[in-house]
Fold:
Amino acid sequence: MSSHGSDLLRNTENPRILVIALRRLGDVLLTTPLVRSLKRGVPGARVDMLVFRGTEGILAGNPDIDAVMTVAMRPTAKETRDLIRGLWRRYDLAVSTQTGDRPTFLAFIAGRRCAGLVPAQGGGGWWKRRALNLRVMADSDSHRVVELLGLTRALGVPPIPELVPPAAAIEAAPPSARYAVLHANPLYRFRRWTDEGWRALARALAERGLRVFATGGPDPEECAYLDRVWNGLDPPVERLDGKLDWPQLAALIRGAAVYVGPDTSMTHLAAATGCPTIGLYGPASPHVIGPWPIGGLDRAWARAGTIQRRGNVWVVQNPLPCLPCERLGCDGHYESRSQCLDELLARQVLAAVDQALAAVRTGGTPERVSLA
Structure:
């Protein structure tokens, strides 16, 4: 450990560490390299996590995490009081992975010592700089994983740039035939590709001799959308929406010849499994939150491009002059259209798919990248 970072755990045998990640599923998954670094870099450490209720499934079976606690996204006053009472000075070190008020406050409450990200100077974080024993400036120009691994360096812990996907105690064998996995529905409408694009892609994959599985969540509204996309397709895709938990999804995707999905948590999961992964990006740039390939990034994702490859991941964009706008679609809200995705052609996505399939056939694998 560095001298300053080691001060936080001085004379502490088998320290208890809490990592706070109050974000959505994909963001929680991107926190796992930090957790792995702490678990392996701090002798005898017990590492727990605090996450939003409903996101804990992405951490299932993670060997680096001893316990996962959850909190409601909008807790009642009683729930907040109970949480504070339960966390009060329970940990030797609490780490906030965000600059927000709530995670910083909870780190201060939970840890005898605490570390975390703080806003840039002038960002309104004066009290956070006083509350935290170790402060790391947030870096909005770096990939999220790189930003989080800055915390490990500040603590004097060697960074390990490995995402850890969920795992079941016993994994079922994947299908014996070569197959592809398609995940059509992101959390928000403005990140969706076109229905016809997905249908054309599924037909093309079947023509390439691949069995095609379609994943999705159990929400009735999402199922209705997937009915619209997939019903009546010839040859039909095999629907798995709502049927698999996170470890089962990870196992399915790990065995696929290729995965294709939009800017969503499932695409981050696919990249983490090592599967050849195609991510379809629209208004948001992959530069900060793009899929993290096995072994890490040898160079940052460009903010815009046509087809970019990093390791086992391909990012596909339709580089209109306005891309990336970093807005909520063309109309500026979650249910907005996005012209860049509406005009993304199936043949461009297929070009990336064929690159991925060719890489698998030739045994192309990414080299592990050191971030030390």
The first strand starts at residue 16 and ends at 21. The chain has two domains: 3-154, 179-361.
